[in-house]
Amino acid sequence: MGSGIGVVITSYNQGDLVREAVDSVLDQECPAKEIVVVDDGSTERDSLGSLALIERRGVRVLRQANLGVSAARNAGIASLRTPYVAVLDGDDMYARAFLGRTVALLEANVDVVAASSWLATIGVGEWVVRPTGGRLADFLPRNACPAAAVMRRRAWAQVGGYSEDLRQGFEDWDFFLKLLELGGSIEIVPEPLVLYRTAPASANVRSMTQRLELYGQIIDRHAPAFTDHAREALLGLEATAIRRLDSLERLVSADRSLDLGEVTYGDGGMAAAVRIATARQQTSATDDRL
Prior knowledge:
Elements: E1 5-11, H1 17-26, E2 34-40, H2 45-56, E3 60-64, H3 69-78, E4 84-89, E5 93-94, H4 98-108, E6 112-123, E7 128-129, E8 150-152, H5 153-158, H6 171-180, E9 185-198, H7 203-207, H8 211-221, H9 223-228, H10 230-254, H11 269-289
Parallel strand pairs: 1-2, 1-4, 2-3, 6-9
Antiparallel strand pairs: 4-8, 5-9, 6-7, 6-8
Helix pairs in contact: 10-11
């Protein structure tokens, strides 16, 4: 199985982190046949030094002007000849079982168009994050697969690769939607096999400051899918809002020092405020009796 996997690692001014990414691929239980690092126009001395060391280890490095991660992924995948391709950002890593477990999902079912896993975050926070995968309708309210994913090379070619004009974020979400619009599902290994680095300056965190605008672009680019699955998309968004409101409600109810903030109308905010006030009164009455 390993002989059929090629891995593209994209990097832009990531210093020695890209060497750790390469090491994680070289350490796979199911080894990759091909590995290529695509440098997206790095300029920092440490990054250039790391890339030179990677080349001396026999790993191929492609260099391009700073055209964005989509162009880097496309250039890397185009240079591979393996039937399966995997992508990895240069500041992240794979756990040793990642390639074996994800490619097994693709080989077991032709209906699976891509595969990834849960995330174990490292850096400013350490959590296990559990994306769900799913079919087209499941990906309309939010992206349900990490960018680090394995797919069939022919499927990448069939949808025209990653959209290179999306340089502010959500390019992986857009790509997964393109795959799913042809049918099938994206599957997730229920283990944290992607080591995802968290940092305030990361591209993913920065993109979330523009989430409303970028989500609008996703809707515009995939308008037929949103039209056909409008009910599922809207219910998915509402379910997310309910979960977040419930978490906030429990937090504010438990800590009376927290400001309730503006009470909103028509979105469940008013009902939540009533429950919070009731819970606080009950807590106060209990404290008075003690």
